[in-house]
């Protein structure tokens, strides 16, 4: 409910509407907790491939217990937020609040000598030696993470063992992309090759891509794995074959470049969350000058020229709720996650589209945080967006768009949400989010429309529907209506769908891969007209046997929200698989046993109850959903508008071909620590959280 509208309504009406709004927010938060509890409760059934028919009272007890735990976490988060906000309000209202807040601003920026631990708003006394140790560790942590260059250096040192001992990690995708480019290169150089024909088998048949989508003039490049990445990876491999005789050197160089890019993205985002670089602040402890006539203001003095102190200081006025830099503990935990979590470390050299998208998303997430924090963070008008931030937003959007096809959906929705939440900077959002999306997505669409490349088969996005049909065909074939069978016949061989069905993965049903190409999807003969009947046939089958259909839906999605479910494909797979360990020229001989040993240690770690959860993507997905529920209960609409991409990514997971596929959870895992910092910082309150009421000095027309 709009706060300005409520301000003009009678008091009883405002109170009633506020209560209704709060109740709805808590209801939605409870539903999020119920979804997590449901996925956890049915997890044992799905892992046993038993289905919902085997639901027993023990599953009901698990549901209730998990719901209590999740709702309890949300309630504690909301309560801690209210307590922190009340404490900040009382401090600001006191006469000495300005001086105390000024000192706190300086101490928070450096955290140099506090002889106590601050946990959950409480001060815990420590023995002198422990106090000195933690004070020194805090100073070292802050100094090591003072700017993005230092953070990048720390990450580079901590990650150095990855590219030097493991070289590269990859799976089947990059080999398919390399094969695509090689066929295209052969065509460009005049080599005759098969195209459409019953006995032909070309790269587009591997995914597969339906023949009705192929252009009349032969072309071997597709947008199946994103055309830009296909060209970059394929060209690098081709150059490597020309210079060294194999793809291996090209793959290693690509992995090293991604490793550098990953470090930069994480360092850039961490710098914005740790140090708030858009707020004027000296590199050392600033001289503070409280304004006792206006205790709600803070003032910091920065020398105009450090080389000429006689020129005097430049005074910066900060509001009482000006955010302070992150403390040593928050910095240490986030850096520990980046340095030690296998989800991050293995992703730095994994040549698949998801890690590249995840690192670009992390960079973009930090840039959007700067826009979020400068929304109404000045008394007269929002702070002008830094040119480096504008340029970085454009570049990060482009990298996301060329690495994941669903990125354009996320960006388009984010444009709408940003315009609703921050209308005064509409030009900025159109320039940095909408324009790159239109140009990149439009250019690829034009290439597909012109026949220069082949678009990705839409069957790829219908994994959930395929699993529903295949499970009914396998478990209850008599339930399939005759009319639905007729509609599906030109598209799928239903008997082969039943044989190919695997509850955790839709790829076999849609005939992806080189093996078993005779099964299921009739990609050679299906037409666009045939595909128009697919949705109608699917709906008929769901109506005929809804229980089996729901079994299939939950079986391919529950693992993303069940922390007890082991990953179907962990990131360690890309380090230790046949493609890396056997099917190449010389990479397989480089630290072969060490590579297998590293993957084995990570797999053993991941199997440890509770302690192993930190290596699983669904652990971070579940906690992120709970933090989002708490933000909803607190009605932090601006924060929710900025965090909406995280919820959209969860939707991508549910519709993904496989259950609990860790590479789809990487973006959420990478930014989870930053999300926690944001929630804790917002608890102090400030103009960036809700924004001031209309008509105040903060709401200047120039803002």
UniProtKB/TrEMBL annotation:
Keywords: Membrane, Transmembrane, Transmembrane helix
Domain of life: Bacteria
The UniProt record lists the keyword Transmembrane helix: yes
The keyword Electron transport appears for this protein: no
Entry protein name: Membrane protein
Signal peptide: none
Organism: Bifidobacterium pseudolongum PV8-2
Membrane-crossing residue ranges in chain numbering: 20-45, 57-78, 151-175, 226-243, 249-271, 332-350, 356-375, 387-408, 428-454, 640-658, 664-680
Lineage start: Bacteria, Bacillati, Actinomycetota, Actinomycetes, Bifidobacteriales
């Amino acid at each position: 409910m709009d706060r300005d509208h409520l301000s003009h309504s009678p008091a009883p009406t405002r109170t009633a509407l506020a209560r209704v709004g709060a109740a709805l927010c808590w209801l939605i938060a409870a539903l999020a907790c119920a979804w997590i509890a449901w996925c956890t409760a049915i997890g044992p059934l799905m892992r046993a491939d038993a289905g919902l028919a085997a639901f027993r009272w023990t599953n009901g007890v698990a549901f209730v217990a998990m719901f209590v735990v999740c709702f309890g976490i949300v309630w504690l988060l909301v309560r801690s937020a209210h307590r922190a906000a009340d404490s900040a309000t009382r401090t600001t209202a006191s006469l000495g609040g300005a001086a105390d807040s000024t000192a706190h601003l300086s101490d928070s920026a450096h955290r140099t000598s506090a002889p106590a631990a601050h946990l959950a708003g409480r001060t815990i006394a420590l023995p002198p030696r422990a106090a000195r140790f933690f004070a020194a560790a805090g100073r070292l942590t802050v100094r090591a993470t003072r700017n993005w260059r230092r953070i990048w250096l720390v990450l580079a040192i901590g990650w150095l063992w990855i590219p030097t001992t493991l070289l590269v990690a990859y799976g089947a995708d990059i080999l398919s992309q390399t094969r695509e480019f090689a066929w295209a290169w052969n065509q460009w150089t005049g080599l005759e090759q098969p195209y459409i024909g019953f006995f032909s088998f070309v790269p587009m048949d591997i995914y597969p891509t339906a023949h009705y989508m192929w252009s009349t003039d032969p072309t071997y490049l597709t947008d199946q794995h994103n055309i830009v990445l296909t060209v970059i990876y394929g060209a690098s491999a081709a150059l490597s074959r020309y210079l060294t005789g194999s793809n291996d050197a090209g793959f290693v160089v690509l992995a090293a470049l991604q490793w550098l890019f990953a470090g930069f993205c994480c360092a850039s985002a961490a710098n914005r969350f740790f140090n708030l670089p858009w707020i004027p602040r000296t590199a050392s402890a600033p001289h503070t000058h409280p304004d006792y006539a206006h205790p709600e203001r803070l003032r910091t003095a920065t020398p105009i020229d450090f080389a000429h102190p006689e020129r005097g200081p430049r005074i910066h006025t900060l509001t009482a709720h000006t955010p302070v830099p992150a403390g040593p503990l928050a910095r240490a935990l986030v850096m520990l996650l980046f340095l030690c979590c296998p989800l991050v470390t293995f992703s730095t050299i994994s040549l698949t589209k998801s890690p590249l998208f995840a690192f670009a998303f992390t960079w973009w997430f930090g840039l959007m945080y700067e826009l979020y924090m400068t929304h109404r963070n000045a008394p007269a008008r929002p702070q002008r967006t830094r040119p480096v931030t504008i340029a970085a937003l454009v570049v990060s959007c482009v990298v996301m768009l060329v690495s994941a096809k669903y990125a354009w959906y996320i960006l388009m929705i984010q444009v709408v949400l940003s315009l609703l939440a921050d209308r005064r900077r509409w030009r900025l959002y159109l320039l940095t989010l909408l324009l790159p999306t239109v140009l990149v997505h439009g250019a690829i669409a034009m290439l597909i429309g012109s026949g220069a490349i082949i678009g990705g088969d839409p069957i790829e996005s219908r994994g959930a529907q395929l699993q529903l049909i295949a499970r009914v065909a396998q478990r209850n074939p008599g339930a399939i209506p005759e009319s639905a069978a007729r509609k599906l016949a030109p598209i799928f061989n239903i008997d082969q769908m039943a044989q190919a069905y695997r509850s955790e993965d839709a790829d076999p049903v849609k005939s992806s891969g080189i093996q078993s190409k005779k099964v299921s999807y009739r990609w050679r003969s299906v037409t666009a007209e045939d595909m128009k009947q697919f949705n109608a046939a699917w709906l008929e089958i769901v109506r005929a046997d809804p229980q089996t259909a729901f079994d299939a839906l939950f079986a391919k999605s529950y693992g993303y929200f069940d922390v007890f479910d082991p990953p179907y494909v962990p990131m360690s797979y890309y380090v230790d698989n046949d493609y890396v360990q056997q099917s190449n020229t010389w990479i397989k001989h480089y630290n072969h046993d060490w590579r297998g040993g590293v993957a084995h240690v990570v797999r053993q770690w991941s199997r440890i109850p509770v302690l192993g959860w930190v290596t699983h993507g669904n652990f971070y997905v579940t906690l992120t959903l709970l933090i989002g529920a708490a933000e909803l209960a607190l009605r932090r609409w601006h924060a929710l508008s900025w965090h909406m991409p995280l919820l959209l990514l969860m939707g991508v997971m549910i519709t993904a071909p496989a259950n609990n596929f860790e590479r789809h959870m990487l973006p959420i895992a990478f930014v989870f620590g930053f999300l926690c910092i944001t929630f804790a910082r917002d608890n102090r309150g400030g103009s960036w959280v809700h924004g001031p009421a209309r008509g105040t000095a903060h709401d200047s027309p120039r803002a």
